[in-house]
Each structure stands twice: as structure tokens, then as C-alpha cells.
Amino acid sequence: MKSPEEIRLSHDLHRIVDVRPGDLDIDAIERSGQRQRRRGLAVRGLAGVAVLGVAVVGSLAAANHSGTAGRVAGQAAARTPTGKAAVQPASPANVETVAYVEKHIAATASNLDNYLVKSVSNTSSVGTPSVEITIWTDPRTGNTMLQQGSGAGRLTYWEHDYFDSDRVLQSDQTQVNYGPRTWWKYDMQGDGPVQGPVPSGPVGGDYPGPAQVKQWLDSGVGKIVGHPYVDGHQTVELSISAGSVEVHAIFADVHTYQVVRSIKYFGPQSDAPPITANYQWVPRTSAMVKLVNNPVIPAGFTQVPVGD
Amino acid sequence: MSGRSEEFREFARDRGWPLQQTAYLLCGDWHAAQDVVQETLIKAYRHWPRVKRAGNPDAYVRGILLNEVRDRWRRPEKAEPAVPDASDDIARRDRLRQALLELPLQQRMTVVLRYLEDQTQVETAKLLGCSEGTVKSQSSRALGTLRTFLTRTESKL
Fold first, then answer.
1. What is the ipTM of this complex?
2. Of A74, A101, A218, B153, which is least packed with CB atoms within 10 Å of its CB?
3. Is-above-0.80 flag for pTM?
4. Are B91 and B75 in a shared domain?
5. CA of A71 to nearest chain B CA: how many angstroms apart?
């Protein structure tokens, strides 16, 4: 018999996992399983050959013969007393070059509409403590929700950027300040119509989408420097340098090529510490989509002029 | 299509999603959860005759999954808990998810098996390779920790 607390916990756990992020690729799983199974059988087969080789060499030596079969088997036995050492690791299906990695990161960045992106980063300034900022972005709309601080310093800020029919950039901003229990709304306009064509797709957002990734990759020359684990992902770490100065580091999941961490460096001329942002690709639950795209003013909060 | 293939595919289609749910609560990240489940199913495929011989493929594969999670947890970098801070039920559940990730792995596994998968104490003990008494004490400790964490973050279970 479960207590009410246990029943509530069970209910909550089911709600937490009530989000289907995507189906498993059973074909791919089966292919991997088949490959690994074949490899396993090959290892056992080679072990058999090696044992047989030792026996053949032994008998041939006793008879003072040196036939071709004996040489081949003897070499196999000499190299592989257990048989296992003869099996080379499977070569990767694709050779991981900088070009290959950059191409896949860029391709993945163009195909993110099934996710919300959550980025957690620090502020970077000299002389003041770094503050952690969480930004949720909906890649379909470009809308963002920023969360910062705790207690009396806690605030939430929403921004919706778009071009109006006169080609003028509009930015609708709303902020809720939890300390003084106030909120403000500010609709900012660009100076005038944008020159040239209006950018296609959503405007705004702070996430490794196509524009951001292009900017990173174009900022210097890439180099693969490692494969560290980041937030549970095995990643390929790409260091991007302009001249001899590293300007960015990008960490992309080795399976999906989604960027899970970026680090921006300011170079030796600046005292500013680097900015690290960690990204999570979160399934689009209707509740989170609603929250990111629609400011929520808590009951009882007072509207104040912008900046208060 | 071979017999192995058909049976395996049916199993993977049927059990893939519940396994992902369990893995998610243990890892705290959907990508990691999918990786864990894929590795688990690849291993299950390789040893499918053994999985079937075990009599309860579901329990056997869940055992592989728990080992896979243990393996990953031993690696140097762990998934960091996520921190959405919305002002409604979503936030409370997210705090619960964070709290879960703060639990020691064995307690977390106990909670997920008992309260997500609805396994009995006996089944949970078998899956984790421990006694029923340990399952009881681990559950009780885990509930206490979750309660404290949620109270500290101004919410209650």
C-alpha cells in the first residue's frame, strides 16, 4: 500500500516523462547489433585459427616442414596468442575531419524545429561577479524567455523580435521582477526600414541555430582538439582560432552533432573572462512552448514604467 | 526477415519507450537516455537467444539498462541537472527531477523502479541485486531527501 506521498511521487514521475522526444531508430539499432555480433563471431573465429595455427606449427616443426599453410597460420599465432589482438577496431564509417564535423554541425543547426533550446551561460565582465543566465528559445518563432537570479533578484524577461509590414524591426519586451513584485512592457522599434531583403525565418533567439553556427565557423580556422564528455554527451571539441588566438570552442554531440556547449574567448587584449554557454535540446511540450512564447505575469504584480 | 529480427523488433517497438522513460529519470537528459537505451537494445540484440532463455526478456533487458546507466555514471562527467524556473507545476516537477538527480544512483534507481515502473519491493530487490530490506531503506531515505529538497525550494511533494 502506497502512502499519499508515494502516490503523488509516482504521479509526478509519470508526468515528468510524459514527453516523447522521438522514436528510437530500430533499424539502426538492429544494424549495430548485427555488426557487433559479426565482429564478436569474427573474434571467436580468429581465436580458433590461432589455436589451430599453434597446433599446425607445432606439428610442422616436429616434422621439420615449412609449408605455406604453416607459415600463414604460424604468423597468425605469433601475432595473436589469444586471437583477440589480431582484430583491429572497426574503422569508423566516416573519417572525422574538421570539414566533416563543421558540415554536420551546420546541417544539424538548420534542422532544429522539433526542439526548444535551453542555454545556461554566465555573464562576463571585469570586476563584477559572474551571474548565471538561462535563456529558452523557440527556434520556430525566435521568441526567447530569459531567467536570471534568485530571491529578490530574480527576474524573467521575454522578447519577441520581428519585422513589421513596413520592414521595420520590432522588439516586444516584457520583464517580471520578483523582488519588488512588478513588471513592465516595452515595445521597441528599429530606426527605420531594414536595408535590403527582410531576413527570412524567425528573428532573434539566442541559440546555436544556423546563423549563430555560421558566425562561429566563419570566425576562424577550426581544429579538432578532443572528445570530452559534456553534460552526459560524448562530444567532438572544435577549437576555432583567428590568427593564433582562440576565439571560440564548440562542443557538439558526436552522434547528433547538436552543439551542447560553446565558449567565447575575448583574446589576450581583454581581461574579460570567457563566456560559457551550455545548451540542452528539449522536446517541445505544449506547456513549455506556451511559457516561452507568452509572458506570464504573476497575480498581484504591479505594472511599472520600463526600467523600474 | 529472420526470427531473431522479428522478435527483437517487436520487443524494441513495445519496450523502447518505457525504457527511455526510465533512462531519462536516471540520466536527467533525453539524449543520454536515448543513447543508453540504444546501447541497451544493441546488447540485447547481440545476445537475443540468451535474453529469451532468461524467461523474462523485459526484466533481463532492464538489467542491461541499469548496468549501462551505472557504467555511464562512473565516467568522469555526469549530466548536470537542468534548471528551468517557471512559476507553475512545470517548475515543481522540474525541481523534483533535479532532486532525483541529486540522489545517489542506487537510491535513484530504487525510486524509478518503485514509483515509475511500479515494481514491487521483491522485483526491485531482484533487479538491483540487493535485499528487500535494502530496497525499503533506500526508498525511505530517497523519499526523505526528496521531501527535504522540495521543501527547501518552497514546494512540497
1. 0.79
2. A218
3. no
4. no
5. 34
